[in-house]
Amino acid sequence: MTSNKLVALIVLILITIGYVKYAFFTNTSDVSKNVNEEVVQTDEAVQEDEQPKKAEDSYLTVFFIGKNDNGEEYYRAVKRKYDAAENGQQLSFAISRLVEGPSKLEQDKGIYSEIPTGTKVISVVETDKKAIINLTADFEHGGGTDGLYKRLYQLVKTANKNTKLPVYLYINNKQADVIGGEGLMINQPLNERVFNE
């Protein structure tokens, strides 16, 4: 083989190697990159679809006291954000929010509660047949007869809005048939005619 033919053969081999390298290896890496990008995008799309949808916020109603434009008092329904997983039983949560009283913003709008600030919830128990709201004795102190009427109606309205069970009021672990310093007799289970009249 002559040296010219040998040089031509080497050049041809180099050109072929260069072409093969360019044609196959360059395109393969670009295709591989595109496939990886598509997989990542697909994974992200799947993750978004697998995330649980946020449920609509749920609210419970609690009753405080407000005044209308004529200055007349009425029982004012206010909403409290409620999450069963975090807050437990609906009635228990509602009674706790009732005892806490209105928020600062609600107070600024003239909304108030007749439930004394020292009142604590001992327990709220629901069985198949009834619900028992057990409060500390602070609930029945102060405010006179008018205050007792109002706080009991707040309790009745809030309880009846948040359970279908008959509701009984206990004070310091005993069923309350008489309440307050005046010895007002009350009807149990609680309803809109809570007082014996």
What would you note in describing this structure?
- With 197 residues, this protein is of the alpha+beta class.
- The chain folds into two domains: 1-51; 58-185, no CATH class.
- 44% of the residues lie in helices and 21% in strands.
- The chain has helices spanning 3-50, 84-87, 90-100, 104-108, 144-162, and strands at residues 58-67, 73-82, 121-126, 131-135, 167-171, 174-175, 178-179, 184-185.
- The protein has a four-stranded mixed sheet with strand order 3-4-5-6, with helices on one face. A two-stranded antiparallel sheet has the order 1-2.
- Helix 3 packs antiparallel against helix 5.
- The longest helix is centred in the N-terminal third of the chain and has 48 residues, at 3-50.
- It is rod-shaped.
- Residues 26-54 have low confidence and may be disordered.
Please, what is the average pLDDT? 80
Helix and strand element order = HEEHHHEEHEEEE
Report the radius of gyration as a whole number of Å: 37 Å
Helix content: 40-55%
When the domains are counted, the total is: 2
Strand content: 15-25%
Q: How would a textbook summarize the main sheet?
A: 4 strands, mixed
Low-confidence stretches: 26-54
The number of distinct β-strands equals 8
Structural classification: alpha+beta
Question: What spatial form do the alpha-carbon principal axes imply?
Answer: rod-shaped
For the termini, the CA-CA separation is 129 Å
Helix tally equals 5
Write the layout of secondary structure elements.
Elements: H1 3-50, E1 58-67, E2 73-82, H2 84-87, H3 90-100, H4 104-108, E3 121-126, E4 131-135, H5 144-162, E5 167-171, E6 174-175, E7 178-179, E8 184-185
Helix pairs in contact: 3-5
